[in-house]
Amino acid sequence: MGRYVARRLIQFIPVILGTLFLLHLLSVLTIQIVGDPVRALFGENAPPDAVIQQLQVQYNLDDPCLQTTGNPCVGLFFDRMGQYLQGDFGVNFRGRPVTELFSERIWVTIRLTTLAILFETVIGITMGMLAGLRKDKFFDNFVRFSTSILIAFPTFVFGSLMLLVLGLQFGLYLRESEWAPEWLGQMFQVGYNEEYPWLSLFLPAMVLGAFSLAAVARLTRTSLIENLRSDYVRTARAKGLTTRRTIGIHTLRNSLIPVVTYIGIDIGVLLGGALVTEGIFNVPGIGQLVFISVQSNDTPVIIGVVTILTMVFLVANLIVDILYAALDPRIRYE
């Protein structure tokens, strides 16, 4: 296991460099094609050229390569990597460091993502397991129908419906009633409440994890049905193992391998997909920060935040690879 982890860490270096170069190339091409973001920031009320040149130097936008469309600006990329290694991800157009803006909001998004992953994992695996054990029966048909509905609904539509029905109507009823405890009303809050940093994120987490819940349930169901027909399951039953041990210890562990793969990839997807959910429920997280930065054309924030999230996504995939050995004893890395 140790040699495999070391090998994966070595492979991690060119992967992250290649990914960051692609992000750099996209940002450079955007500037070359669309135009200087500093000039776009002021619009028609542009200040004197001396002020614009000073801002271009401050934000590393004075490189001549940015004037030639198609130039990859390799030198600018290495300069940016040097800044990243020092923990400097730049400053926004108001002079605040990107790392400061990121640290202020990341914990809200981490709490939201954690709740969404727990929601989709626990409920999704449970639904998929019960559906797989009751193939073609009522509960199996119900799971297939309900997951199809969840997959069909776009996040902004489903989130808006949840906000109106559960947040405004049901949540307001709970908060105004005398019998419901205060914490229950906060679970169906329409916005983020700093006094209840976890409970007020319950409803947004349900919206964020709904699509992934459907995918996890379907993956678990399909994988479990396939493994129940395997030779090792029939052998275990022939040896007299109980149904609980055969399914819980042997079949379910092997069935969770594609689910773990999906959840590992979904961590990055949830961090990025939180943009829509945080916008609907007014959650002050990373998604809202990126949304505001896109609206204000704050390029340094967009590049810095996307770079950090990319590294988080790659680390999550590394952890998933290591978890394979714990789930499937047939997989060995030594």
TrEMBL record:
Q: How does the protein's chain sit in the membrane according to the entry?
A: Multi-pass membrane protein
GO biological process assignments:
transmembrane transport
Q: Name one GO cellular component term.
A: plasma membrane
The membrane spanning regions, by residue number, are: 12-34, 106-133, 145-174, 196-219, 259-281, 301-327
User: Does the record bear Transport in its keywords?
Assistant: yes
- Give the subcellular location: Cell membrane
Q: In this protein, which residues make up the domain named ABC transmembrane type-1? A: 106-324
Query: Per UniProt, which keywords does this protein have?
Result: Cell membrane, Membrane, Transmembrane, Transmembrane helix, Transport
Record PROSITE patterns: ABC_TM1 (PS50928)
Similarity section = Belongs to the binding-protein-dependent transport system permease family.
- What's the name of the protein? ABC transporter permease
